[in-house]
């Protein structure tokens, strides 16, 4: 009888310990998911293409891939372009932005 009670106590302790570990890990995963979701918040940009590479872009991009310039939110295709933009002077930015604001030409399907 004592062995059985002792076995049940040991099992209960193990189950409670595993439950606590699982709950702690789940909390960490949820926090990481919230951080990722916050970093990936999509915002609308004015440029249909990347100002540096000319790559066609969606109308919305992750907020961390944008810069505000002269009251407009400018989007970039990659981190490298974003960093290069940050080092440019206003005259170069204006020239690049002028090109980036041109509409992206779409190919017409042949019938």
Number of strands: 4
Mean pLDDT: 81
DSSP helix count? 3
SSE ordering:
HEEEEHH
Calculate Rg over CA atoms: 26 Å
Helix content: 40-55%
The profile of the biggest β sheet is: 2 strands, antiparallel
- Structural class call reads alpha+beta
Tell me the number of structural domains.
2
Task: Bin the strand percentage.
Answer: 5-15%
Uncertain regions: pLDDT < 50 for 5+ in a row?
none
**How are the strands of the biggest sheet laid out side by side?**
1-2
Tell me the distance between the termini: 86 Å
What is the approximate shape?
elongated
How does this structure look, described?
There is one protein chain. This protein is of the alpha+beta class. It has helices spanning 2-39, 79-87, 90-100; strands at 42-44, 60-62, 66-69, 72-75. It folds into two domains: 1-39; 42-100, no CATH class. Helix content is 52%, strand content 13%. The strands form two sheets. It has a two-stranded antiparallel sheet with strand order 1-2. The chain is elongated, with a radius of gyration of 26 Å. The chain starts with a helix and ends in an 11-residue tail after the last helix.
